[in-house]
């Protein structure tokens, strides 16, 4: 005997591992066989689960509830109820060393239970997920199947070991859909019974005229098997005798007993005792029926059932189905009778092979197979226990290839381009927060950047609220070019340093919370540079749902793979989800001249550098389509224009589905002449008829009246796309210039190792330490030495101790200067003197309440070295607290965006975000004007003088700094005074050189001021537009006061600074 069959209890097993075994069916004999195997492996096992019948259980177990086969809704309800009272139900059991869950519904209990035990401080509790069947509901492409797979994937995150009975389950399901990346242990359903003793009176040889006895044993659930056996015996009465033993699944075959009663060659001998009755059962038959078509095309093809091993152990030839895993095993050993398909003719042909000679050959072949192939031994049980408890994951006899959870080093940058997406953006960010937290726990760097194109609703407020909840993980980035392509490129320039992956999310979509995890796993699994996904349109109102139905069907999408692909594959294009950052940059990023179809255009360039694009079926997104016919047609009109630009740019040819759409607009134009030549309308008539019939077919197949509207809506989409395509193609052809592919960007040249300094003027500012810390973390400097110069403008050296403490720990040189004048010009000039004395060639300025992005210095320096300029300026993005007025947050009046001339160059500089080539001639002897040190505008005057000296400006939008707006500046009064000062300084520099200049510009300034005030009165009920005009009016009023000789107001002083 391979092992004893008595139960091992705690008293007998000193130091034995304790396993909590959860099963979906306590009445299943196979579950108790697994329990027995675990005990024979040396573990103490406690059993809990759901009962299916009122029959007594083989031994004590904790019954968590009662379920019934096939009633999914009721089973889900029972599982939820059990989960709520699980800890109470398990009270009294010792803390397990491992948990094993048999089937998905108990995994829903085991996953949080294992996590709870692992978090109690007593050590990790490994969780094993045992799967012996893949239900057909898990395999479809419908919403229910996708939802179930999504639930399984989520629960499998906590799984440490996947236990399967067949490699085909892993190959055809878990690997295909990527359900679980845990190590896999194959534990076949080998017989636990000892090998049979040689029989004194073996079954006699087959004799002519005697019936051939076919045994079908175990769980009898295959309706098709019963029908085939019934038909075969009726076709040849008396030739075959089918003996069935076990438990019929009456929910699957409700007429089982009626069929058996009506056929004298069928008999049912009832249940049997396992394993005691096996020698008698298999000793009484000639061949065993090993076919199970219960889950044809899926589980039935992959399963290696108990009866395969029982028949093999007793040397009984098996009847198997071609193409199944059972057929593979028996064919390798030469011990099977193959049925080619599940038709009566195929079964008849296979049964005709059962002759005395053939059966003797098969029995002889069985005798040559080692008994270990069919019988489970103690060593197998010990391997199972070691695998489940985590003692030795490497002892498994068969270990399938697995995906490691630790992926390529480097961070993940998630970019969400947005414009007026207040209604949807919050949900998108919330869906990514679990991923950010998982990255934080694992030490992986991850950041979400919302590239906002100038939203006028509450989009920016949404981002700032989310950023406040997770500081450092979520950022708002101003996208001045407004296009999605430009916003993503800018985000990569600003935050992409050190990031390995780029994930693109749409603000008008919904994502599962494991979306990013699966994308990263797929990139590692497929070794692809880009992962794309399918998307499913979904809506709420009647029109939006009808549009969604059209877009989800071939009628609306032409069968495009990225709309609804049932399986993963390599493709030319798909909906962008994840890209390697290096590949994205090597291809040149998105073409910023494209407002639409920028993803397909980039895919062509990715392919040109040899990048592979994998369309995953493991995850996807729900897209919210337009909710109006006019907006839908505008969208598809732009889609058509984008596709035409892509084809023209790359010289590519349209696909067949696109050719049909391309022909539509000309056909509509030709139909105008149909009154004179009716044949010209034939294409239009065919197309309109096709749309209507397609909508009718959708309505019938989906059983929804939405389909009737989907047909005409699809026609509108077709026509708009075609019109947009031809509009753009005409523009392409009449431009007179062939489209030239932009040169692929070269790798960034290494920075010249010249000394760089950053100057920070400070005056009793608590946020100074945060500014210094952001500079400490600067990246991409390529060895360029960085010096930080802090100029303290307080009369007492209030910042000295903090700066010196920081300098003692900093990797950069830190210099503290004391300029006790309470005049910011004096502080800035002190920095200029120190930098010149140190021989520093390049100097940057940042304010003491600003936070620099991680590659701020390197972005400014690269732009300075690459461009013909002496001054590089960058933007400042204001961060508003929740107490800021809504109109202020929406208008973003505290942002600093450099004004650009016709050539895209800034017309002025500002010291809050700037880098200058200090050694250049325009800065020789140049200083900040102390007379403007209290009023402000000293930096504007400084850079204006540099411009007049010949300095050239350039903008670097990726060199972003952020500034939290203090309460003292969150008032309309402060903004009015600030703009008044800006207007005063601007006029002083440009309009006050002579009386003639004042006389020329004063009337225009007065007119502008009057115009703004009138608009402010008219728009008084609207806070945002009203205050916009008041602020612009203050700017013109400042210019007027300057030209009239009034003195500047003092905006910055000790009170304001001290309170900040």
TrEMBL record:
Name of the protein described by the UniProt record: Glycosyltransferase
Keyword list, A-Z: Cell membrane, Glycosyltransferase, Membrane, Transferase, Transmembrane, Transmembrane helix
Pfam families: Glyco_trans_4_4, Glycos_transf_2
SUPFAM superfamilies, per database record: Nucleotide-diphospho-sugar transferases (SSF53448), UDP-Glycosyltransferase/glycogen phosphorylase (SSF53756)
Keyword Signal tagged: no
Region described as Disordered: 189-209
Glycosyltransferase subfamily 4-like N-terminal domain residues: 35-177
GO cellular component entries: plasma membrane
InterPro entries the record matches: Glyco_trans_2-like, Glyco_trans_4-like_N, Nucleotide-diphossugar_trans
Biased composition (Basic and acidic residues): 197-206
Record's keyword annotation contains Cell membrane: yes
Residue ranges of the TM segments: 679-698, 705-726
């Amino acid at each position: 005997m391979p092992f004893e069959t008595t139960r091992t209890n705690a008293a007998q097993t000193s130091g034995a591992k304790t396993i909590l075994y959860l099963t979906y069916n306590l009445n299943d004999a196979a579950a108790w066989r697994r329990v027995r195997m675990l005990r024979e492996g040396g573990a103490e096992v406690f059993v809990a689960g759901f009962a299916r019948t009122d029959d007594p259980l083989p031994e004590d177990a904790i019954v968590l509830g009662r379920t019934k086969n096939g009633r999914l809704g009721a089973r889900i309800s029972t599982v939820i109820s059990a989960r709520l009272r699980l800890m109470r139900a398990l009270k009294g059991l010792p803390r397990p060393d491992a948990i094993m869950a048999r089937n998905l519904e108990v995994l829903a209990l085991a996953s949080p239970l294992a996590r709870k035990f692992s978090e109690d401080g007593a050590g990790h509790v490994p969780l094993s997920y045992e799967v012996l069947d893949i239900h057909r509901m898990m395999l479809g492409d419908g919403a229910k199947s996708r939802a179930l797979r999504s639930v399984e994937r989520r629960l499998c995150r906590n799984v440490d070991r996947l236990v399967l009975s067949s490699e085909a389950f892993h190959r055809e399901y878990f690997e295909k859909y990527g359900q679980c990346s845990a190590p896999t242990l194959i534990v076949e359903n080998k017989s636990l019974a000892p090998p049979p003793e040689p029989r004194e009176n073996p079954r006699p040889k087959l004799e002519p005229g005697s019936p051939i006895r076919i045994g079908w044993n175990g769980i009898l659930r295959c309706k098709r098997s019963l029908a085939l056996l019934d038909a075969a015996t009726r076709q040849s009465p008396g030739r075959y005798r089918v003996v069935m033993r076990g438990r019929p699944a009456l929910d699957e075959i409700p007429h089982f007993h009626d069929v058996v009663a009506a056929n004298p060659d069928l008999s049912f001998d009832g249940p049997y005792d396992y394993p005691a009755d096996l020698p008698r059962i298999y000793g009484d038959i000639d061949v065993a029926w090993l076919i199970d078509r219960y889950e044809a095309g899926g589980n039935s093809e992959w399963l290696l059932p108990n009866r395969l091993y029982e028949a093999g152990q007793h040397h009984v030839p098996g009847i198997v189905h071609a193409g199944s895993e059972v057929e593979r095993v028996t064919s390798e050993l030469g011990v099977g009778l193959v049925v080619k398909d599940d038709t009566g003719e195929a079964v008849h042909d296979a049964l005709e092979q059962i002759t005395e000679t053939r059966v003797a050959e098969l029995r002889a072949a069985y005798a040559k197979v080692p008994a270990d192939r069919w019988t489970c031994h103690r060593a197998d049980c010990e391997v199972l226990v070691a695998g489940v408890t985590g003692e030795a994951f490497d002892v498994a006899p068969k270990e399938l290839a697995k995906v490691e959870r630790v992926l390529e080093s480097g961070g993940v940058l998630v970019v969400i381009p947005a414009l007026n997406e207040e209604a949807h953006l919050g949900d998108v960010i919330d869906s990514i927060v679990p991923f950010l937290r998982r990255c934080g726990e694992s030490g992986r760097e991850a950041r979400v950047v919302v590239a906002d194109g100038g939203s006028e609703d509450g989009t920016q407020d949404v981002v700032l609220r989310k950023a406040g909840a997770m500081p450092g993980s979520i950022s708002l980035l101003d996208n001045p070019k407004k296009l999605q392509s430009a916003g993503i490129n800018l985000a990569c320039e600003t935050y992409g340093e050190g990031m390995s992956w780029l994930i693109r999310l749409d603000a008008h979509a919904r994502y599962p919370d494991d979306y990013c995890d699966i994308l990263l796993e797929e990139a590692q699994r497929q070794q692809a540079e880009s992962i794309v996904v399918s998307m499913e349109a979904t809506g709420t109102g009647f029109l939006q749902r009808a549009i969604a139905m059209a877009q989800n069907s071939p009628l609306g999408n032409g069968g495009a793979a990225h709309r609804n692909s049932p399986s993963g594959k390599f493709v030319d294009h798909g909906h962008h989800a994840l890209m390697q950052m290096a590949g994205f940059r090597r291809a040149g990023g998105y073409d910023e001249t494209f407002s639409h179809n920028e993803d397909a255009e980039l895919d062509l360039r990715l392919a040109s550098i040899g990048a592979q694009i994998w369309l995953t079926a493991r995850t996807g997104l729900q897209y919210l389509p337009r909710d109006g016919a006019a907006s839908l047609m505008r969208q598809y009109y732009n889609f058509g224009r984008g596709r035409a630009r892509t084809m023209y740019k790359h010289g590519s040819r349209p696909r067949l589905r696109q050719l049909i759409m391309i022909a539509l607009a000309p056909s509509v134009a030709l139909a105008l002449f149909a009154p004179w030549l009716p044949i010209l309308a034939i294409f239009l008539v065919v197309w309109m008829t096709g749309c209507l019939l397609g909508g009718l077919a959708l309505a019938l197949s989906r059983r929804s009246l939405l389909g009737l509207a989907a047909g005409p809506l699809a026609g509108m989409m077709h026509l708009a796309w075609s019109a947009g395509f031809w509009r753009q193609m005409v523009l392409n052809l009449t431009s007179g210039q062939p489209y030239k592919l932009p040169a692929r960007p070269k790798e960034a040249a290494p920075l010249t190792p010249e000394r760089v300094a950053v100057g920070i003027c400070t005056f009793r500012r608590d946020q100074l330490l945060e500014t210094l810390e952001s500079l400490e973390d600067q990246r991409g400097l390529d060895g360029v030495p960085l010096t930080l110069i802090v100029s303290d403008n307080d009369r007492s050296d209030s910042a000295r101790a903090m700066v010196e403490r920081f300098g003692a720990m900093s990797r950069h040189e830190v210099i503290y200067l004391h300029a006790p004048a309470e005049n910011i010009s004096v502080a800035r000039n002190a920095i200029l003197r120190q930098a010149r004395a140190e021989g520093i060639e390049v100097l940057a300025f940042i304010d003491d309440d600003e936070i620099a992005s991680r590659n701020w210095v390197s972005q400014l320096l690269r732009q300075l070295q690459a461009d013909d300029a002496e001054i590089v300026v960058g933007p400042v993005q204001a961060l508003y607290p929740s107490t800021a007025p809504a109109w202020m947050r929406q208008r973003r009046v505290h942002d600093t965006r450099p004004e650009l001339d016709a050539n895209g160059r800034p017309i002025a500089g500002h010291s809050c975000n700037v880098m200058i080539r200090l050694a250049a001639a325009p800065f020789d002897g140049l200083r900040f004007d102390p007379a403007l040190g209290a009023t402000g505008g000293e930096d504007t005057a400084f850079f204006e003088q540099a411009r007049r000296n010949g300095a050239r400006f350039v903008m670097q939008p990726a060199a972003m700094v952020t500034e939290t707006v203090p309460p003292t500046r969150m008032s309309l009064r402060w903004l009015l005074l600030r703009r008044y000062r800006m207007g005063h300084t601007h006029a002083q520099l440009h309009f006050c050189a002579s009386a003639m200049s004042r006389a020329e510009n004063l009337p225009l300034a007065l007119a502008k001021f009057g115009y703004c005030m009138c608009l402010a009165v008219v728009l008084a009920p609207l806070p945002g537009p009203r205050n916009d005009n008041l602020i612009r009016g203050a700017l013109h009023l400042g210019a007027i006061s300057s030209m009239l000789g009034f003195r500047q107001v003092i905006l910055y002083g000790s009170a304001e600074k001290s309170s900040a």
